[in-house]
Amino acid sequence: MIPVLLILFPLVSGLLSFFIKDEKTAKIWASFSSLATVVVALIAALSPADLSFDAAWLPTLGSRFSLGMDGMSKMLTLLTAISFPLVFFSTYKNSYTNSNSFYGLLLLTQAGLMGVFLSTDALLFYFFWELALIPVYFLCSIWGGEKRIAVTFKFFIYTFIGSLMMLAGIIYLYTQTTDASFALKSFYNLHLSISQQAVGFWLFFVAFAIKMPIFPFHTWQPDAYEQSPTAVTMILSGVMVKMGIYAVIRWLVPVFPAAVSEYGNLVIILSVIGMLYASLIAIRQDDVKRLIAYSSIAHIGLMCAAIFVKNNIGLEGTMIQMFNHGINVIGLWIVADAVEKQTGTRKISELGGLAQKAPTLAILLVVMALANIALPLTNAFIGEFLMFNGLFQYNMVIAAVAGVSIILAAVYTLNMIQRVFYGNTVSLTANAMESNGYVQTTLIILVIVVIALGIYPQPLLQLTKGVLLH
Amino acid sequence: MKTLLAIIVLLPFLGFLLNGLFRKHGTYKSVARLACTTILSSFIASAIVFGMLSQGTTAETVKYFDFINTDSIKIPFAFQIDHLSAMFLLIITGIGFLIHLYSSAYMKDEEPQHYARYFAYLNLFIFSMLLLVLGANYIIMFIGWEGVGLCSYLLIGFWFKNDNFNYAAKKAFIMNRIGDLGFLLAIFWLIARLGNANYADVFANVHNLSQTDITAITLLLFVGAMGKSAQIPLYTWLPDAMAGPTPVSALIHAATMVTAGIYMIARSNVLYSAAEFTQHIVVIVGLTTALFSATIAIKQNDIKKVLAYSTVSQLGYMFLGLGVGAYTGAVFHVMTHAFFKALLFLGAGSVIHAMHHEQDIRKMGGLKKYLPITHITFLLGCIAISGIPPFSGFFSKDEILAAAYEKNPVYWGLGVAGAAMTAFYMFRLYATTFLGKFRGTQDQEHHLHESPAAMTIPLIVLAVLSVIGGFVGVPEVLGGKHLLGEYLSTVIIPEPHHALAHNTEYMLMGISVAVATIAILFAVSHYSKKPQLEDATGLGKVLENKWYVDELYNTFIVNPLNALGGFFKNIVEKSGIDGFVNGIGRFVNYLSRQIRLVQSGQVGGYILMMVVSVVIILFIWIHDGEIYKFLVTKLF
């Protein structure tokens, strides 16, 4: 029953949110209901056994409402659960028109995300995938920045094409099952020829690659991150991109083993190109948000590559990194938003000297930035260390080339710190102040998580232990 | 032992946390007292550990918890205490404490909260360095390794309002990261071959590694060492690191950071002794760096820059020692160098303090009478670094040079040439600063004063150590005993007995001492009377501009990468990928406009469409009855 609650809580509270009249109540309602979800997710994560739920849904089609919860699902639902209150809390002072709908849509997204990480039925999976996406179109197009319509349209085209391809892939697999079922197990038991696998592989891969995103399917992302309201951006990059990675681990690699062997190398090379490509672009970015977006693309590239090396150490790294990246990137967005709130700009070239005005924010940013470059004793180091080990055991040269991104990450991250926070104040930063208590508190929580999991990552590693490629 | 080691490491960390978190609440006194006490306590604990080991306590590995423990890899968070790490503990905490003490007076001009921030970073630096030398596997070493990189970044850029300093800080971090990548790849390689990176397991399994593996791993580790210990081509950050407060330079150059590379290779001596090719590379890089940076030091006019290039050069000597297999000699030189380089930097700090932040030696001169203690101690440091017996630098340098001669007399010859340059530029520095007439403004002259006791006491202690520190490693030929060599013999396989005849050794020593003496006399006579240093021309100009290496790096590496990033950002993203995506959009638009024409309202057209469709469906049905059957059975 617990898995169902994880979906039901945000779904119901999201729907109810639409009926709330005033902004403050909507905020409090969203915050508390999301905290309730955290409790459920924690109970689930702490339970030693795998959880599952199964009920009839669309019997004529052979699709069931079946949910399963192994270590990876526990970890990702936990990430989904804790991200939302963090987002709500850190943006508590932000004001939205029609805030009831804003929070309602966000909570619906959370329900969709939970469903994606829990479903063990392909049609159900597809349903939740769309449920997670559709509210985002509205969130972005209604509450977004100046270019929101064009950007939402681009985002829609990309993800819509991806969704269609995935649907085609799912139906194709369905026709191949012997028991006319959408169940994950039936997909795992398929005996497909290599050419059949190739078709399915590419249909699924492109869908997931757009979501992650992997070079060259990524150009929706910097635009969407830049134009969405920060709360939405946090969810998009902190949690939603993990849908793609999760889907590759759960729905792609085990289903098409032969195709993965055949095309894995190509995917790894694409991912590594993307890492360097995005890192180099990040060096030249003048917009804080776009810089973080490209940095994120680089990190995701490594996570994708480490899946396709098909050794355990790489996969272990990717799994814990899904969680860690979520935490870290949310922290970076909070800082980016705080900077914009204080100065009215995100242009790095127009900023400077903020550390004098907001020393606490500067310290918190530096810690988050260090996590972004995977300094040891931050959480990201553990994941990257394992992933690079996996990549190295697959191919030394590729690992060495990918390793250059470690250096480039230091370049763009330190550039950003220097030009935004150090140096002398300029006109825009002269009157800046420390960010509000909500922002600081959230960041302090995140910093503690970053360091705690960097020193003692064992809880995360234990949680995902045993979740191996089938 | 487990608790003792934990105390040594955690005390500085505690100091960091307290001073960092409560930086707004501390007074100068409380902050300095806290920071100094933690390091002093660590030093005392280290001394106890050092003593225990010399009394026969055996080396030990203590595990605290599982750092990374998965199905495929197990990395314990463990410390290894043996004679090598014990010795580094003493250097780090001992010199570190003196620098803390010195800083307590030197940094008094800062606001209280920045004063606290400074000491928090300083403690963190010591903490990282202790992790580095105590780790029982390469991963823990790497934690400390990147930790000191971070601390140097924070301290070089301590005055963060100055953008030049920020650039220097960033440069240090990035250059170090380049080296770190090499280190990481070496770790990956070890793990791929042996399944873990514990020293004990690695060194016991060297015979299970192929020659290629050993060569590659040692080379990659060496890349890491190049970054951290500022060797060609990754040395340019160290001279720029002068941007930080002067005691920080002393810390980076003497007790922490740059000695990490030497420690790493000495620690891995089992691997390096099995990798002849790598040893050659280490020798070449070390020697080249030693000579190259010595040439630059000759023409620098910033008191700290001279010392900085001198450090790069001395590190080159240490690598020369490592490359020829004189691991003990290299570690010995780390120790003596820590004494006299900390002394010289702190002395320079005292000068800068007195000169109100003037660092240009062309504006100094004649400081001898204003700063008597600083002058005497600085002079002792210069003699020690120049390799004049019986000062400490003589013994350690001699040990390296003798080992180099054994390997190849050319190495020795080049080494002596470098030593001559060292003596020359050090005494050029000394003479221009302390001898002759004062060349600064009257106002400056009026304010010249000796530094307070908190600064002069460390100078005196370090001066004493610089003078007598060499006696722990007196070579046999001079009738001494190599105490240090005996102490380290459990970790470092003792070098084969010197095959050199005593006469040869006397001759080698004689030549190097004579050459250094001549260089000193020349420098003193040349520079002590000069009213003004002339502007450099020709080769001198090239040297003054550091062989234009920074410009070369900018032209050939930094700018092209920036341009590539710009190309990706402005061309590939916008016109390439987005162009394609938007192209699809336009194509769909175009298509729908064309299709609209189909819906022309003419019945004939519709019928045609229908017929075509039916034909297609029929075709599919006949061609692949399965699909039809499937559709009928499943859907209807």
Give a written overview of the molecule:
The complex is a heterodimer of chains A (470) and B (636). Chain A is mainly alpha-helical. Chain A has two domains: 1-255, no CATH class; 280-470, no CATH class. Helices cover 74% and strands 3% of the residues of chain A. Chain A has a two-stranded antiparallel ribbon with strand order 1-2. In chain A, a hairpin with a 4-residue loop joins strand 1 and strand 2 (63-69). Chain A is globular, with a radius of gyration of 21 Å. With 636 residues, chain B is an all-alpha fold. Among the domains of chain B are: 321-538, no CATH class; 545-593; 600-636. In chain B, 74% of the residues lie in helices and 3% in strands. Chain B is built from 26 helices and two strands. Chain B has helices spanning 2-21, 28-54, 83-106, 112-134, 138-156, 163-194, 199-204, 211-228, 237-240, 246-255, 259-267, 269-273, 276-298, 303-323, 327-354, 372-386, 392-407, 409-434, 442-447, 453-468, 483-488, 502-527, 538-544, 549-598, 603-623, 625-635, and strands spanning 60-69, 74-81. In chain B, strands 1-2 form a two-stranded antiparallel ribbon. In chain B, helix 15 crosses helix 17 (392-407). Classes of the chains: A mainly alpha (470), B mainly alpha (636). At the A-B interface, helix 6, helix 11, helix 13, helix 16 and helix 17 of A face strand 1, helix 5, helix 6 and helix 24 of B.
Helix proportion of residues of chain B, in percent? Answer: over 70%
SSE ordering of chain B: HHEEHHHHHHHHHHHHHHHHHHHHHHHH
Q: What are the segments of chain A in which pLDDT stays under 50 over at least 5 consecutive residues?
A: none
Please, how many helices of chain B? 26
Quaternary: heterodimer
Order of strands across the widest beta sheet of chain B? 1-2
Radius of gyration of chain A equals 21 Å
Q: What share of the residues of chain A lie within helices?
A: over 70%
Mean residue pLDDT of chain A: 89
| Uncertain runs of chain B | 621-625
The largest pleated sheet of chain B is described as: 2 strands, antiparallel
Number of helices of chain A: 19
Task: Identify the strand order in the major beta sheet of chain A.
Answer: 1-2
Radius of gyration of chain B: 31 Å
Tell me what portion of residues of chain B adopts beta-strand conformation: under 5%
